Amino acid sequence: MNPRSAVRFLLLWSFRFVLLLALLLAGPAYMFAFGEVQFDRDWRTMQREPAGLAPDAGQYRDAVVQVYAARAFNWRGVFAVHTWIAVKPENAESYTLYEVTGWRRPSVRAMSGAPDRPWFGSPPKLLGEIRGSDAHRAIPTIEAAVRDYPFAHRYEAWPGPNSNTFTAWVVRRTAELQVEFPPTAIGKDYLDQGLVARTPSGTGFQASLGGVLGLTIARREGLELNILGLVVGLDPLRPALKIPGIGRVGYGRPWTLPGEGPAD
């Protein structure tokens, strides 16, 4: 290859890389430019009232398991959501929340509280839930998965392991839970071992290289391509696009099973 051809080759691939980067960042730029994520929130005065998405533990006696997502705090919210799991055993009068945070070690936190409270002011969205006998069977499995989480002493906001890595880990190990995570759940594709795993919905498979590069093909997730941790995708069964930063955009709604709520 002569010098002129080499320069042309480098310029061409540099242009392609810049174009790819621009496409990946267009969604987060939109979220930033149009105020979809607020940066001036004071965490001390943020909304903490429950959203009304969870049954009242004092009145609802059956077991409940719920999976939630909310926009991450501050600038991270233009890229990603934070996810967590809430469980209420049969006849229990309170919920236990399981989540991972980046400011403590071990990173896994278990606490009692309202499962549908905002996350630093961002309203929660219900990704999925099970109740009754299914939830009763699932809770011991969830508790065991929480104890066995392999990254409890390690946290990386990008590309993982992070809060979404934890939630996806627990869901994959709980047969009763079939949850479609939003494409904005950065870290969900970070696998604990190997390059291939079943999707959290249990309806397909994904290949992932350290959460930085990956491919997902599943009935519920559709087709997803992970590039640098940002997910672009297509849902052909419920026509929709999956756009980094923004999430799912289309006419169809995410798959729901009896008792499950939709996600964006």
Write the layout of secondary structure elements.
Elements (H helix, E strand, L loop, with lengths): L2 H31 L30 E8 L9 E8 L7 E5 L7 E5 L12 E7 H17 L14 H10 L23 E3 L5 E6 L3 E6 L3 E6 L2 E6 L4 E4 L3 E4 L14
Antiparallel strand pairs: 1-2, 1-5, 2-3, 3-4, 6-7, 7-8, 8-9, 9-10, 10-11, 11-12
Which descriptors would you attach to this protein?
single chain; 264 residues; alpha+beta; 7-stranded antiparallel sheet; 5-stranded antiparallel sheet; 3 helices; 12 strands; 22% helix; globular; disordered C terminus
Number of strands: 12
Reading the helices and strands in chain order gives HEEEEEHHEEEEEEE
pLDDT < 50 runs, ≥5 residues? 256-264
Tell me the strand order in the biggest sheet: 6-7-8-9-10-11-12
Total helical segments: 3
Give me a quick take on this structure.
The chain is an alpha+beta fold. The chain has three helices and twelve strands. The strands form two sheets. It has a seven-stranded antiparallel beta sheet, with no helix packed on it. The chain has a five-stranded antiparallel beta sheet with strand order 4-3-2-1-5.
Can you put this structure into words, describing what you see?
It is a single chain. By secondary structure, the protein is of the alpha+beta class. It has one domain (3-250). It contains three helices and twelve strands, in the order αβββββααβββββββ. The strands form two sheets. A seven-stranded antiparallel beta sheet has the order 6-7-8-9-10-11-12, with no helix packed on it. A five-stranded antiparallel beta sheet has the order 4-3-2-1-5. The protein is globular and about 75 Å long. The N and C termini lie far apart (49 Å). The model is unreliable at 256-264 (pLDDT under 50).
